[in-house]
Amino acid sequence: MQQIADALGVSRATVSNALRGTGRVGRELAERIRAEAARSGYVPSHAGRSLRTGKSANIGLVVPDFAMPLFPVFAQAFERAAKRRGMAIMVADSMGAAETQREEIRNIVARGVDGLVVIPLRGSNLADLALPVPMAVVDSAANPLNAASCDHRDGGRQVARHLADLGHRRVVILVSAEESTVSAERQRGMEEVFRIRDVRWKVVALRPDFDSVHDWAMGADMSGDLGGATACAAAYDAAAVGFATAMAARGLRVPQDISVTGFDDLIWGRILSPALTTVRQDLAAIAEQTLAVLADGAAPGRIFPVTLVARGSSGPAPRS
Predict the structure, then answer these.
(1) Which residues form a coiled coil (predicted)?
(2) Per-residue pLDDT for 269 more than 80?
């Protein structure tokens, strides 16, 4: 900044005001200062600014597992929300392990972030964490630490109504084998509607990954393991894709022989043929609200609506 000031014959304070858009600096002079800054390759020192303000303008984000396609999309939503606030995101991956999750939380806090966002692993408990910075959890309404999330239960209701309206009277619900408030909320929403609409259901708990579901579905007996179901409502898109591909490998048609639905609207479901009926979350709104909880002191616990996206994988129940 001093070099820019010397080159233009102005004070360092004038350069600072022009680059930050503050103070009384004429338009022509401000443009000359910005042009000289660009020519000289000037970039502001966030480290220096943090020494003056006591704030780093960095937020930590710890995700469960980047191998699952939902979480890179979630990270992008937080990156966009942070940029709008002049903040930066530091991301850490728990890699599917509870011990790694706690380790990454400690590591990222040690790097001087102003706050921390955690999308927790299924079944993990973060209530006993003592941290020097505020933490916001993105999970479900059933988690008392939840700062913001989508309405997982209503998403389950929407899926169940969709299948019931199509005439399905026997449905298998695929859920996470691990304790998960998200999976449980989606399951409860489905069961609420199925109970009212006189739909019989069977819950199958599996790890929500492609191989686990695919291998199970390949060996499932349609009249036994699936209870004669004409539809499968999966709590996650990954489980739905694994199930649908297994049904196709067995010679069953989706949706003519069995309908399949998922949850999260991931790219996997959109490239499946036929494309997957699913539930879409408003990730941008969740990210914005979570940062508002951390940065502005907004009240936590806000729940955002979801949208059913009906595609080709769901159709009328077969007559036999």
Answers:
(1) none
(2) yes
